[in-house]
Design goal:
cell membrane, 558 residues, disordered C terminus, transmembrane helix, globular, 67% helix, transmembrane
Amino acid sequence: MMDLFVANMAPVMFVSLIMFLLLGFPVAFALAANGMVFGLIGVEMGLFNWSLFQALPLRVFGIMANDTLLAIPFFTFMGLILERSGMAEDLLDTIGQLFGSMPGGLAIAVVAVGAMLAATTGVVSASVISMGLISLPIMLRYGYSRRLATGVIAASGTLSQIIPPSLVLIVLADQLGRSVGDMYRGAMVPGLVLTGAYLAYILVLAVLRPKDVPAIPAEHRTYSEPNGRSGARSLCVLLLISLVAGYVLDEFWIDPNGPIDEKVIIGILLVGGVAFLLALINKWLKLGLLSILAERVVFVMIPPLGLIFLVLGTIFLGIATPTEGGAMGAVGAILMAVSRRRLSIDLLKQAMDTTAKLSCFVMFILIGSTIFSLTFRGVDGDLWVEHLLIDLPGGEYGFLILVSVLVFVLAFFLDFFELAFIIVPLLGPVADKMGIDLIWFGVILAVNMQTSFMHPPFGFSLFYLRSVAPKDDYIDKVTKKKIAGVATGDIYWGSVPFIGIQIVMIAIVLLFPGMVTHYKGSGAKVDPSTVTIEMQDEYGADMNPFDDSGDGGMPVFK
């Protein structure tokens, strides 16, 4: 019996960890305790000796010295400052007015703002709570289906999982040993495609069931002109002029044969900059060439979009590391809050407090995870996982499908941090040994983990929305009419279509890896046959490493 236990200690250790988590023990302490207890058992059973744990201090100090993880507090702080300075409210109001005249316009605004908040906060709770407080009462006021209203808010909030600078992508890149910049670039296209899929679903509903997604009544569109028109024509003209000017400047300044990422990012920044400059000139000189709606869209949307593309653009172009980009974003967020006269000591305290709590949460889980993984490897757990998965039928696609199903099922019970720190270190080495691109593998996991926030009954996104959605009937402040509350069942059923869309997205990323691996296509190409290495001594004299004539000095590689 004892021999059977020793031979199967790795699966016993893994199952006991899942049991600890299901019983409700904190993740960090469940990981650490599991690793320590089974470490003591392993020493007593003679599987390894105490010297194994001498590696533990070095592992802990390695986590503390990891510069990549500094991006987590920077991006979290950036997002919290922007969100709590009223950016989300302004964006929802502006985009809602922009698309409000069409059926489904408010839902489109929620998805668009969800994507923008995802590119600033990187935190699901902040996005869901913000949009739940701001947009849900408005959607209920104008007669939106409760299931659709709650579903679109919960789903849009989870875009923070896949759209850079997602915290999940930072953690996955760290656990897989890959560049955060490459992970960001690989996830960008799937994130935008998923956003487009949400929008397409809303537009289909607007055609098939327009009563579920009514337009905003004309009397409630506040950014209309004195003649009653919306002013959209003025906005279109401004956008056209900015596109032409941005294209000309892009072609003049940027090498046409340069990387496509560079041209796109700088082109977007130039278009936004031209539009913002023209709007400023119009306002300062009181020319009256732009409509109220056009001015509102430019002054509300361009600054946060500019900050997003500036931060991510410097990372994609290799100008800044993710940590440096996060630091620039944090400073930029503070400057934007100051320019809008919304920065206060209380806001700073709240943002720093939340950032410190989340950062400590991540660090403690990482320390617990490294204790667990050290013991798990000591009992040959990595070999057990490898032998379990390496010979699956179907090759790499069989492995990826099984992993996707496993993560999807575990996401019913574990959140993304638990999955990232427990499952990924076990699966990553197997995927690498099978020759699977780890950036592609990480993005598949990220899209899959995104569903963990939407799964009834444990989805955190659903809990966040439930905490701010009205449970009881209430009187609307604008219409003075009685509005029925939102039932928990409405929130759960509203998430189901979007979970289906996410599952389809997982299949698309599996079938079309080029959506992710395009990151390999840009950058400088080096022909190894043209590389020469010259060796010189410290005085500049040529040096042959195979010459024993006595020339000294340190070699210099060129």
